[in-house]
């Protein structure tokens, strides 16, 4: 989709001041890279100089003002984690984060710091300067040190919504039971009973305290190994100018948001996807009753699903009147005759095919955006991270259904497929949602590029930062007042009880 040479528009180049922009996206996941690629291309087209550190370099770029540093070596570490296995072992997201991903994120950062090309940028004797630095606001705070090293404005990026640690540090509202907080997976919602809210409260604040008092100090030491003495990383984070979040208002539950957050959605989706390979095109064109597309995304592998679960899928698929195209990473001897498998499949081109009936997927953000753009209802089997939240949102919006991959039955799968395909309300509803998302008064890519330039022009846009970030957390949430009133209430109650007891004795 992005396989095109960059052509500078001379009229724009002449009108805009040229800024030097550094972007580091170190997460080895295509879904973390692709949302921002149109932004890098647009900023370059406006005449800015780009240095992009990425695990997925954009192809066919031939420009002296667009440098890409390849850190795809990070994929080797991520492939060691079997997210499907963790799902079946009932390891929740926060446990996965603490046991596996936080240390893995540090290894991604080390690869960045140790890159010879990147070391040339931040070497003490380097005279290289940048006006703005963009990086992911996930679980890699050592990356924020680049903003301090280059005295550049910091812009955070997130393809997973806003994390609780972001709200905690930046002065936002930490709402452990709000359905937006996907870190608590399917345990959030409206008017939850006390015990569920208590569980979410303890779980969320335990994570926040762990990140604040254990992870940030470790990240501080890591960053200082390469940069020398630094201000606290949490203070660098508080000075973030803006955060660009990949989420659509229509798909997101309403909640208070910080003034320096800009949302964007779907601008990686192509209006005219590339043609399908000939053999796949013929397979789909010959689907008289239509076809179903099945993919668990780039981070979860269908080939690692337990045998009994594969058997359920194969048994149901074999009995359907539809053809099925399945992203499957190995050979599948028991593959039914109506099923086509491929290790890699051109997802947008498949979703754009007129004969598609249903998308069975894992609930990734980008996949959700793509399926809505092409108006294909979904059946979701979430595996990790925000996918439970995403699939439940699709179900709540009436454009799909949710099934749990560890417990579903043949009948549930078959009935869900027929329900979504035969009930017109799913298709009608997704067409409405698609039109609502597309109904914007501006080009979203240009909008984000403008905000990037605005941050530089306003020297970091400090007026957009929440002043609540400057207060200690216990003051911001009035925890000290709650504790004080609880103590006073307890003392008064004890005093009244003692007085009553003394009066009765007298």
How is this structure best described in words?
- There is one protein chain.
- By secondary structure, the protein is of the alpha/beta class.
- The chain has two domains: 263 residues, Rossmann fold (3-Layer(aba) Sandwich), CATH 3.40.50; 161 residues, Glycogen Phosphorylase B (Rossmann fold, 3-Layer(aba) Sandwich), CATH 3.40.50.2000.
- Helix content is 45%, strand content 12%.
- The protein has 21 helices and 13 strands.
- The strands form two sheets. Strands 3-2-1-4-5-6-7 form a seven-stranded parallel sheet, with helices on one face. A six-stranded parallel sheet has the order 10-9-8-11-12-13, with helices on both faces.
CATH topology of the largest domain: Rossmann fold
Report low-confidence residues grouped into runs of 5 or more.
Answer: 1-15
CATH top-level class of the largest domain: Alpha Beta
**Arithmetic mean of pLDDT:** 93
Structural class: alpha/beta
Rg for CA atoms: 25 Å
Q: In what range is the share of β-strand residues?
A: 5-15%
Q: Helix segment count?
A: 21
**How much helix is in the residues?**
40-55%
Terminal Cα span: 89 Å
Main sheet: strand order: 3-2-1-4-5-6-7
Sketch the major β-sheet.
7 strands, parallel
Task: Describe, in short, the structure shown.
This protein has helices spanning 10-15, 30-33, 37-45, 75-78, 83-88, 93-114, 116-122, 145-149, 164-170, 194-227, 233-238, 278-285, 307-319, 347-351, 365-373, 387-396, 410-422, 424-438, 444-457, 473-476, 479-505, and strands at 20-25, 49-54, 66-70, 132-136, 153-158, 242-246, 261-264, 291-294, 323-327, 339-342, 356-361, 378-380, 400-402. Helix 3 (37-45) packs across helix 19 (444-457), helix 6 (93-114) packs parallel to helix 10 (194-227) and helix 13 (307-319) packs across helix 17 (410-422). It is of the alpha/beta class and 506 residues long.
